[in-house]
Amino acid sequence: MSFAPLQIDPAVLAEGVNLMWVLVVTFLIFFMHAGFAMLEAGQVRSKNVANQLTKNLLTWSVGVVMFFLIGSGISSLVGGSGFASAALVGSSGDWVGWLFGAVFAMTAATIVSGAVAGRAKLRAYVTYTILLAAVIYPVVTGLTWGGGFIASLGYQDFAGGMIVHGMGGIAGLTAAWVLGPRIGRYNKDGSVNVIPGHSLTFAVLGTLILAFGWYGFNVGTAATVFAVEDGALTLGAFSYVGRVAMTTTIAMACGAIGASAVSLIKTGKVDTLYVANGLLAGLVGITAIPDTTTWWGAFVVGGIAGAQLPIVFGFVEKRLKIDDVCAVFPVHGSAGVIGTLLFPFVATSSALEGTTMVGAFIDQVVFVVIVAGWTIAATALVFGVLKAIGQARVTPEHERDGLDISEHGVDTYPEFGVDDGVATDGGSIVRTDGSVAGSEVTDNE
Amino acid sequence: MSFAPLQIDPAVLAEGVNLMWVLVVTFLIFFMHAGFAMLEAGQVRSKNVANQLTKNLLTWSVGVVMFFLIGSGISSLVGGSGFASAALVGSSGDWVGWLFGAVFAMTAATIVSGAVAGRAKLRAYVTYTILLAAVIYPVVTGLTWGGGFIASLGYQDFAGGMIVHGMGGIAGLTAAWVLGPRIGRYNKDGSVNVIPGHSLTFAVLGTLILAFGWYGFNVGTAATVFAVEDGALTLGAFSYVGRVAMTTTIAMACGAIGASAVSLIKTGKVDTLYVANGLLAGLVGITAIPDTTTWWGAFVVGGIAGAQLPIVFGFVEKRLKIDDVCAVFPVHGSAGVIGTLLFPFVATSSALEGTTMVGAFIDQVVFVVIVAGWTIAATALVFGVLKAIGQARVTPEHERDGLDISEHGVDTYPEFGVDDGVATDGGSIVRTDGSVAGSEVTDNE
Amino acid sequence: MSFAPLQIDPAVLAEGVNLMWVLVVTFLIFFMHAGFAMLEAGQVRSKNVANQLTKNLLTWSVGVVMFFLIGSGISSLVGGSGFASAALVGSSGDWVGWLFGAVFAMTAATIVSGAVAGRAKLRAYVTYTILLAAVIYPVVTGLTWGGGFIASLGYQDFAGGMIVHGMGGIAGLTAAWVLGPRIGRYNKDGSVNVIPGHSLTFAVLGTLILAFGWYGFNVGTAATVFAVEDGALTLGAFSYVGRVAMTTTIAMACGAIGASAVSLIKTGKVDTLYVANGLLAGLVGITAIPDTTTWWGAFVVGGIAGAQLPIVFGFVEKRLKIDDVCAVFPVHGSAGVIGTLLFPFVATSSALEGTTMVGAFIDQVVFVVIVAGWTIAATALVFGVLKAIGQARVTPEHERDGLDISEHGVDTYPEFGVDDGVATDGGSIVRTDGSVAGSEVTDNE
After folding, report:
1. What are the boundaries of each domain within chain C?
2. Where in this chain does the record put each Ammonium transporter AmtB-like domain (chains A, B, C) (predicted)?
3. Lowest CB count within 10 Å: A179, A225, B108, B324, which one?
4. Which chain A residue has the Cα nearest residue B401?
């Protein structure tokens, strides 16, 4: 009875446990789509809610198919491993890895929908999503996580602070800039009107769902519970997973506190949406560096990421005059860039071993510039072409009536009277031929 | 120091890790109740929301108790292992297994509530739920997963595409048929009125919660991370878990795309509810076969399951004239049957080893016919008896005023004026004795 | 090739797997904040929703930072291990443990916000949260789980039925008592007015999110999947994890059933909010004892915890005349105390080994009295001081207009007309300088 060496192969043990962990966190990251859907739905007018919800559903559905067939192959191609589409070369283990990559990709994609809310045509948005999932995002991951050009220079982005969130936020800003603002957002004299979203409750629900999923996003990127070294089982990324969990938590908290403080200073009140978006900005800020940041660094990064939110939002709104409806640039774009660039200044000493603070900073700047440049160029090109052929925006009439009716033929809240001048049918019963049921119905509802 | 053989028993290792996995996915599947509650609440009128929510809460509460005391025993009895109620013969490990089974059982149960919304009496619904959890569903699992008659013939249903979803969807259709449509749903000339739900936002939130939980449902059914073979640790179901995750993802996406395409072709617009329900139909379609389907098969199954949704919904509504409020038959019933029957045509070659395509198809047909027949008969009997004794439906007055008031004494949204002719109290303050506070309150709210 | 003894160290294996489990359940418990936010938001007036949401966001954000810097150190100090703040002495593994503790701490903190809704100043609430996270709660855990005085006497509280929920519920009741009721809650003749919450849908959504997270809370407290005994891997707490999962499930179900039954007896109808809160009370009731209760004991504890809810709520409302807005005392306070005290009467025989039923009961009484006494004293002191300096409540004008406007400057639902006499801006477009855009906007929304 001494067949012990054959009983448990450390590689099998590590594979099973690591697969389980990656699957669980992948599910959590997928659930962020519910978060984005609610966060964005809450921040748009009630006449555009169904449009926002549909865009979120189709981002995932269309995007994940494109990433399966093409994007995964483009990423490996740019990374130098040839066109290895998950559809053609996947096996059971590969498919888990593909899905883990896919939920990150779809996070980048879905960020854009919040910026272009209220006026982008559904088919314009879906066209962009197809290209983002098939090419634009895979080029970024190929250059970085996939081992391509940026990886050869050196950079730090643990879970996608720049690759996913920075990229998505910058893409959103670019798209909103090309599209132009919603009707009524700016006056002829250049002054700005606030168009408040229809439900803060849904927005905060979305925020908390996102924070929940983000633990999967950041902590889950510590993807190897176990590794095998010299034939022996060791903790893989789990040797530092506690730091990732701690810095993610502290940065999230300090993001909310930082945004609250700036809101209080600016207006004397604590704007709920700033608190929620500040919490998210804190999460974005730490996402590039949760594994390498000191505990006090998490306070710094989170606090700055949160505090910059109201300021950058005001700058985009009032100076750039870009109508970024759901504040995706201050939440994902600038917070992602800031966190990525702060890396050398808040890093643990071991994280900077073999380099200098200046050297690491230059690496990060080059990384950010390349990713931002590619994202801006590609996004401006796609929406520019769509705009040139008149396919980017809905008509002014449709925009005024709301995209729910013109693009989807639905009323999100048919029973609740809405005071913005858009007639609703008052929840009356509509026949499938379109006419409205009236007195001839004996037992009407 | 060579006591290695005693250090780690592969069986203990497998047990601990497998228990962890099963617990995590069980929690995810449980969370689907939040998804069903939101999906259904969003699809009913505001006057029936609290009723729908209460039914969902009681489905779980009453159902899980019945399944603990009786249903688990009936299932084992029908499966041939004697009446082994979880209450009486359970131990720690058994109870994890029981709970894993219970969350599947309660999924089947809760589907029905969406079909009978807006007119079924609470006590009729609860009575049916008791019988479903104690007998109707356990008979199905006893015959199949429990090793009973259908298992002896041969069939394929990995995670309950037919056993859970097909069964629930068929039960819902049967119940809705026996109950008759809501007042106002059909006109005297046979034409149809649409009664739109009160909130697409809640419906889409429910959809995404369900999709999240579904990863637990399908991927979690690959329940053994590790197995022990010849004394050695091996990957159990985790040797193919990546296929399950991939086909589930692709089918979900293609369900949404398929339903969107049909909606676009039929009406020129993309109906948000069709996209959401199409995504769910794609998930239902793959649920019987995620472990055995090729990657292109997942596209086929998901696409068909999604595309059939608007068509089957129209058929049920206009031809059968059955008022299936939340479209549970096209989402769970027909999609579940279709996925189950498509098995031999999309299966990997190894999945058909030892049989033929025709042989496997006949097995699936027999399986579907038995489960459907039993479900229809049992459900029609229960609701038929309830109807015969006048206990199935609320009175027409109560139905018109809404079940929230008559069955629960509450107003779901007391502050929001509703335009459907039902008077609300305008959120005024009500005394606990029922009178309305007025001028005598000095500092009214 | 016989280096087997070196291949897999059981301690490394246990550490990796246990860390994974603790992280997953920690995420689930964190998600309970979304549950509390929705449950409470649904139970307040629409004019106070943003305030409630902000309080929930800041409870987590401010609380977790305080618990990191100070609370963790106070807990260890009171427990007898010196001031070991997580900020200063944490390592990767310690930080996972800290975060696991933090999500329990923040659960206790967030309960209070539901009791003081609709009239507490934001800064009063945040001040209390800081003190709770830094001192009040850490003293309780130091005395118990941390190995302090109560631990030396003996007590049973597995997952915080008393330490977390009982403490939070009692703190909430105390704070609501010191603050006084909302304007309009009681008439001059002493009679009571019901002020219904604005959305049962959000309340039930919150309930189901909480139940989902509670599986992490209770089952996750069985925190050791594996242990190492005499050099060999064994199941740790997972040897009894099935009992925890089963009793938690049964008690939750029986809580909903118990509250439904009492509601039906009292009013002839099944109040949806009682069902939801009853389900939660059932969960609270079992939280101290899920590992030691028999299966029939789970029925008893859950049923009593649910049934007492409407009764205790009525007592607090009508006799004590304390305005506990979200019923946090009957849900968390009395249910937590009851479950804790029922321990000896429903325990398995092995759980009472070495003691007697009377001895165990006395231990539980002493434990409950000390925790309740400390909580009441500390909470009354903090809110008493705040009240004495006029910082506890908003002005009557602000209370009548709603805290959303006065404290946050926002309107949660700007497009939905609200019938409670509070003027809303009808969703009109507001300039950033505060003026309302009118006719000069050519293309208004």
Report:
1. 10-393
2. 20-413
3. A179
4. A445
